[in-house]
Amino acid sequence: MTASPLTPPEGTAAPTRAAAFGRAPVGASGGSAGGASVELTGWGWRHATRSAWALRGLDLRIEPGERVLLLGASGAGKSTLMHALAGVLGGPDEGDSEGRLLIDGVEPEGARGRAGLVLQDPDSQVVLARVGDDVAFGCENLGLPRDEIWRRVADALDAVGLDVPLRHPTSELSGGQKQRLALAGVLAMRPGLLLLDEPTANLDPEGVIEVRDAVARVLAGSDATLIVIEHRVDVWWKLVDRVIVLSPGGGVLADGRPDEVLAREGTALAASGIWVPGHAPEAPTRTRVSGRELVRTEGLAVGRRPGVVLRSGIDLRIDAGRCLAITGPNGTGKSTTGLTLAGLIRPAAGTVDASGIADGLGAAPLSWKSRELVTRIGMVFQDPEHQFVAGTVRDELAVGAHAIGLDAVESARRIDALLERLRLGSLANANPFTLSGGEKRRLSVATVLVTRPRLLVLDEPTFGQDARTWRELVAFLAELLDAGSGVVAVTHDTRLVEVLADDELLLEPRS
Amino acid sequence: MQNTLITTKAPFQRINYRWRVVDIVVASVLGVAAALIFFGWNQLYAPVTAPFEALLPGSQALFYGVWLFAGVLGGLVIRKPGAALYTEVVAATVSALLGAKWGGFFTIEAGLVQGLGAELVFLVFLYSSWKLGVAILAGAGAGLAMAINDLVLWYPGADTAFQAIYTVSAIISGAVIAGLGSWLIVRALAKTGVLSRFASGRDQTARA
Amino acid sequence: MSVLTPEAGPQAIYRVNPVAKLGATAIISIALVLSIDWVSAAVALAFESLLFLFAGLSLRRFALRTLPVTIAAFFSAVTILLYGRPSGQSYLQFLLINVSDGSIELAIATLLRVLAIGLPAVVLFVTVDPTDLADGLAQVLRLPSRFVLGALGGLRLVGLFIDDWKSLELARRARGMADRGRLRRFAGQAFALLVLSIRRGSKLATAMEARGFGASNRRSWARESRFGAAEVALLAIGALVAVVSVTVSVATGNWNFIAGG
What we know:
The structure holds 3 protein chains of 3 kinds.
Chain A: H1 17-20, E1 38-47, E2 55-62, E3 67-72, H2 78-86, E4 95-103, E5 115-118, H3 131-141, H4 146-160, H5 175-187, E6 193-197, H6 205-220, E7 225-229, H7 233-236, E8 242-246, E9 252-256, H8 258-271, E10 293-302, E11 311-319, E12 323-327, H9 334-341, E13 349-353, H10 355-358, H11 370-374, E14 377-380, H12 393-403, H13 408-421, H14 437-449, E15 455-459, H15 467-482, E16 486-490, H16 494-500, E17 503-506
Parallel strand pairs in A: 3-7, 3-8, 5-6, 6-7, 12-16, 12-17, 14-15, 15-16
Antiparallel strand pairs in A: 1-2, 1-4, 8-9, 10-11, 10-13
Helix pairs in contact in A: 3-4, 3-5, 4-5, 5-6, 12-13, 12-14
Chain B: H1 21-55, H2 69-78, H3 83-97, H4 103-124, H5 132-153, H6 160-192, H7 199-202
Helix pairs in contact in B: 1-2, 1-3, 2-3, 2-4, 2-5, 2-6, 3-4, 4-5, 5-6
Chain C: H1 18-33, H2 38-52, H3 59-83, E1 90-94, E2 97-100, H4 101-125, H5 130-139, H6 145-174, H7 182-210, H8 229-251
Antiparallel strand pairs in C: 1-2
């Protein structure tokens, strides 16, 4: 019944922690003067760097206290609208606007404390080094007196359930905690309009639940208006009472109660990449073949720093045509294991025996030169941007070809084939950093395949991806497996494991 | 308990010269990144410059342009009055926090003087020209300022030949490493699209 | 954040307002830089060595953090030794090198001077917490809060840089690029880091703006930056070191003003 990999188990209640301790929840007394209303009349915006309008002719009215889920295909201008509501879209030198946008009848720039915006990237919203200071930041900007500030800080941290000392370093928080910190920082300002721009997109399943529960808790005790953008519908399904779908470059496509809108637009939305309940992306068909052994490990122990062992006693075997999934909670050494298998990090103990693909070299991948490594094991990193080294997409692919000394003809042949297969042809001359999330992921996979490695190691390949990219990636990996490659996927994604994995290594947290 | 609704009124930006928050933060990021490069260069430069110093005393300044690029880079990216000065001062301050060689106060003072050197050039061009020639001149300006500062404060016992060679080397180094170098860096940055909120980024990327 | 993390400890020095530390080092630095003679520098250095005992740094940490200054002092002294203004008997002459009585004296003075100016700065700065410094600059010195806090935000991003650097290195090995061209790879990695940092900085700016930052310079402060007795005491100590060093130097006739002769 679960449509997305991250649907929480049924019956997860959102406890009102504040109420449990007998204190008034945020907003009930001495809070903001109720939710804010939003009104747009023929509103549109065009970024200075684009020729097409992000949004145009948008007519919308949101009443105080409504809880709205904003959907739409990528590029449909949802983020633009949120930034505009928060008053941070930038002045006339950053774009052109038309029409009218009002919050409580006032322009957003003139009412900055009224709307609170939480963004997608946990690391880019932390302003100060200590938790208490970071939450107090917004209040300081509003010019509140010192004791009022610290009172609100305590309330806000309580409301989101972040139970850490005020002097706790913000750099030591997990992703979910950082997002809750951002939410607390916004709540301390007592906004009437809560804007959440894909708040759980960059979080692991645990973090997603944390943030969702925190928001639910906040909403239970306040009458603020909520607008949330997310491409995972089921996470916010039960919290919203209205769904609005925007169309790219235009206005409102659909608007109404959640079940109505999804019944009408469900299929179209799923096709454009939204994770819609009941419209799960289909699993690809596979002819499961098993080939010879590629890599085996014996008593492998892994760690990032010399002397620190994250995990020990790993014994596994990866065969051609089979997919191994490495799963487990955060901090148990999944990524480290992946990197060690790929010959990038030294094992803390034990051996990685890659004689199956060594082809004349030593058994340990760590001993291979970089040029030798790329034709045997390909590693796709969690953040595609870490792998970008060139100025255009085509040059990115050429780097691998150049590293192994392919001649121009063969090089061009392979590159063109990959550009075609991964639908990057139209982007061949674009700078890799300007690509969208899904395109970057496809590019990072393409760069690894130019050198035709026998084994592919992927670190969280479906992290933060929409349904369409997910479908494509999984189908592509299935193809590679059928063609005889081995695949190791380090992942949180339970659906990926279901669909693709032949073997699974579950790293339990040590007690 | 008062039920107060607190909001802030932001003045609408009419003058282009007012610094936005993104200007301040990105200039600071550039400054901090430059400070890291300064830190690395601080550890490495001595053996590189020693042979030059031995052969032609004062020519070690040919490598000192590395400490000047923060200001020129900041000016070219942010394109607002005070950008060069601010970025170089931030770089110097962070560098001082990391334990730079001249001690906190004079590291910052040097940054101030060097930043001014670049800033004055941008001012002469009325903050409206950001072409390669201006960048090179700004780097040269910073180099000259650095030479004057160092010779007065740290090499007052040196002879005239040394002072002359030092000054010329500093100007060349500033022009090439800080001027041309920064200009190339900005061009490469603009292509990646990260400068889309700045005029320096939009010059490169046409309307797509 | 190892390089940027300030030391922490119970000694009084850690609680003193960073602005006072800035002031004290400024006073000493300016006084000492005005003359290039070994007496003022030596007296100051002796005084400071005594005070370092109260600095709250272990010997090992002290040596580690002051190493760049010590190396720089050595190199500066050698430069002056070889190319300083000649006077008195000459011991070695080769091309432009001229080691003479005068240059030896100036070299010693330079060595002591760089140490006397640099060491206290390092010791004091190593105990400064960036957030406290920002609070001090904005509240005590009344620098515009937009710039001070914007700079602090940018500084915080540095901690994230260091994590990314390792990933970037591993990625280059994974791409087949790690065998040759070390310098080129370094430059490429540095550039990638710069791109990622600017992007994060832009997002941080939006987040700060969304929380009301940047509208005006008038804001309240959650943490109070106090400038009281301890701070004045530190400034007084700095002034004392400066005054005594200069006085002794002038009294013994060694004062050598840099702008004169």
